[in-house]
Amino acid sequence: SAVISQKPSRDICQRGTSLTIQCQVDSQVTMMFWYRQQPGQSLTLIATANQGSEATYESGFVIDKFPISRPNLTFSTLTVSNMSPEDSSIYLCSLGNFRGTEAFFGQGTRLTVV
Amino acid sequence: DAKTTQPPSMDCAEGRAANLPCNHSTISGNEYVYWYRQIHSQGPQYIIHGLKNNETNEMASLIITEDRKSSTLILPHATLRDTAVYYCIVRTYNTDKLIFGTGTRLQVFP
Asked: Which of B45, B96, B101 is nearest residue A96 as measured by Cβ atoms?
């Protein structure tokens, strides 16, 4: 299995600021994804992080609000920009179909915007 | 949008079998049924998946109806540690992204 390190594990941020979340994997992976889980809700896919090109965003999510980088096959970042209290959520990175096994998830970043 | 529907919550006594149903009436021929669970807002954990045959692993069994429009996840001897939200997901095998529905919150009681 892959080891996923997601940082920070939690943060409390002021509205109007931005937070960058990092996802580091111990092996090269083709597919990486970012999810959001609002309080008491299920997981919602934000985007697919593509190595060497722009991320592919799901409906309702835009690059200006959630810029994503994927500089290599082991690392990705998600930035939550110009935050408001509605952005308070858990954000998770995920690996897709790693070496034929099923999707792995990081432990998540619990973000609170005040 | 998610292609599955699940009951919002279920209870199960410890040591008994937990049977979690899932409806996926619009499933296509090349789509698999996957189950994940999430404990206390940790990252989701893979449980099992299947196409049309019943499947069993060390965690659970998956029973898929012959018409593939529904399935049941079976935890044969539920423990308190199985208390979690269980997600049933329909996914095309070569598509890695997962679209989560609302899931079933399973509460295992002593």
From this structure: B96
**Cα separation of B60 and B69, whole Å?**
20
Closest CA to B89 of B36, B19, B29, B20: B36
Q: CA quadruple A61, A62, A64, A66: dihedral positive or negative?
A: positive
- DSSP SS3 for B8: coil
pLDDT (tens digit, 0 to 9) for every residue of chain A, 114 residues total? 678 999 999 999 999 999 999 999 998 888 899 999 999 999 999 999 988 888 999 999 999 999 999 999 999 999 999 999 999 999 999 987 654 557 788 899 999 999
Residue whose entry in the numeric block shows the structure tokens 């999707």: A103
Q: What are phi and psi of A87, to 5 degrees?
A: -85, -5
Disruptive mutation site among B5, B46, B96 for chain A (greatest number of A CBs within 10 Å): B96
Quickly tell me which residue has 């540690």 as its tokens: B81
Q: Which residues of B touch A97 (CB under 8 A)?
A: 96
Burial class (CB in 10 A: 0-12, 13-18, 19+), A53: exposed
| Partner A contacted by B58 (CB < 8 A) | no
